[in-house]
């Protein structure tokens, strides 16, 4: 599954544009393909124009032949336009949506890394779509490679683009190796050094990775720097970290907090069954009957009031990030045509 919704990534709008263009080309689509195949040949003197490439990007099917044609068109378009920068249309995000739509991550990664396409995908949204596509297809090492390129480019002056940071830490979490943990720690140290404040989702991925790598002390330090300490994933991770540190009695105020703040108008505040089980095991390990008795009383209260969920922590961590309704009013083409605008739809849902 993807981390960001297709609406946030603009794939829904791309899909609608495909339908319109396919209708326009209903009787001439095959002829257009043949013509573009001839034009895309490097030996041909014919140029690939902006409209040609835009149309083919929306007509493409998920076949090797179509993808090879689009690849050749992009390479020629990029080559011929190095000295002819008249067009204002920014292709990067649209091309990445095309690859996302036909689910071809390897081809998307290859084009992004191709030196001949340098600058073509230098947009924050292009990075986000590509990394999400790679994450969806479990190409976690490639997600990290893309992020390394992004950091060197510093597009729009950003060394740590927020959405890209979330995605690279998600990849590190999924890899769950000593190497990915070390990468995540070094990245987090960089945030501190440069005064960057990552989004909550980035912090929860990093903290969960630390827990999985038997470093609950690192998890707690990461969580202490995140916003909204009462958020469900942060609460669960803090309780898990304290349990792993053999400090289960310190979890009681956190567990009790949901009983004190819950109301009929709010979404039910919950803890994962697996976290409660972990905490109970940690309490028993202490060998103190009074603390065990207090925990069991608290556990019964949580169960009776439906504050314990069977949903896994992993599912909560990887829940899809979707856009707020008001953000849909902003036409996405403005982002693509005017790259200086740094529109970030739906960020309020990610904090």
Number of helices: 18
Helix and strand succession?
HHHHHHHHHHHHHHEHHEHH
- In spatial order, strands of the major sheet run 1-2
Nearest-angstrom radius of gyration? 24 Å
Q: Give the terminus-to-terminus CA distance.
A: 21 Å
Main β sheet profile: 2 strands, parallel
**Sheet/helix structural class:** mainly alpha
Q: Which residues sit in consecutive blocks of at least 5 with pLDDT less than 50?
A: 324-351
Shape: elongated
Mean pLDDT: 88
Strand element count: 2
Helix content: 55-70%
Beta content comes to: under 5%
Description:
With 351 residues, the protein is mainly alpha-helical. The protein has a domain at 1-159. 62% of the residues lie in helices and 1% in strands. GO terms for molecular function: RNA binding. InterPro entries: PTCD2 (IPR034629), TPR-like_helical_dom_sf (IPR011990). One of its GO terms (biological process) is mitochondrion organization.
Observed structural traits:
351 residues, mainly alpha, two-stranded parallel sheet
List the helices and strands and how they pair.
Blueprint: H1 11-24, H2 29-40, H3 50-59, H4 64-80, H5 92-102, H6 105-113, H7 124-136, H8 140-153, H9 162-175, H10 178-194, H11 200-212, H12 216-224, H13 232-244, H14 252-261, E1 271-272, H15 273-286, H16 289-304, E2 308-309, H17 313-317, H18 333-337
Parallel strand pairs: 1-2
Helix pairs in contact: 2-4, 3-4, 5-7, 7-8, 7-9, 8-9, 9-10, 9-11, 11-12, 11-13, 12-13, 13-15, 14-16, 15-16
């Amino acid at each position: 599954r993807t981390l960001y919704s297709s609406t946030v990534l603009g794939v829904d709008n791309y899909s609608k544009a495909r339908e319109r263009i396919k209708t326009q080309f209903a009787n001439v689509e095959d002829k257009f393909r043949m013509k573009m195949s001839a034009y895309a040949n490097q030996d041909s003197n014919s140029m690939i124009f902006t409209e040609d490439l835009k149309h083919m990007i929306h007509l493409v099917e998920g076949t090797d032949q179509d993808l090879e044609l689009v690849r050749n068109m992009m390479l020629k378009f990029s080559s011929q336009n190095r000295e002819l920068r008249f067009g204002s249309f920014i292709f990067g995000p649209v091309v990445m949506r095309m690859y996302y739509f036909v689910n071809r991550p390897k081809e998307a990664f290859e084009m992004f890394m191709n030196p001949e396409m340098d600058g073509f995908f230098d947009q924050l949204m292009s990075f986000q779509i590509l990394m999400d596509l790679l994450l969806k297809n479990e190409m976690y090492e490639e997600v990290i490679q893309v992020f390394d390129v992004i950091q060197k480019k510093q597009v729009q002056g950003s060394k740590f683009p927020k959405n890209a940071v979330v995605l690279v830490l998600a990849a590190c979490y999924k890899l769950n190796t000593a190497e990915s943990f070390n990468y995540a720690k070094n990245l987090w140290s960089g945030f501190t050094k440069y005064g960057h404040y990552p989004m909550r989702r980035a912090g929860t991925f990093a903290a969960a990775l630390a827990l999985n790598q038997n470093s609950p002390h690192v998890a707690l330090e990461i969580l202490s720097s995140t916003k909204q300490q009462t958020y469900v994933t942060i609460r669960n991770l803090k309780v898990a970290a304290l349990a792993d540190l053999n400090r289960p009695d310190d979890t009681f105020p956190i567990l009790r907090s949901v009983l004190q703040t819950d109301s009929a108008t709010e979404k039910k505040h919950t803890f994962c069954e697996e976290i409660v089980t972990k905490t109970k095991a940690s309490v028993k390990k202490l060998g103190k009957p009074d603390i065990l008795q207090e925990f069991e009383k608290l556990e019964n209260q949580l169960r009776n009031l439906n504050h314990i969920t069977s949903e896994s922590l992993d599912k909560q961590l990887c829940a899809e990030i979707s856009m707020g309704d008001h953000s849909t009013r902003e036409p996405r083409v403005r982002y693509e045509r005017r790259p200086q605008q740094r529109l970030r739809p739906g960020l309020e849902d990610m904090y």
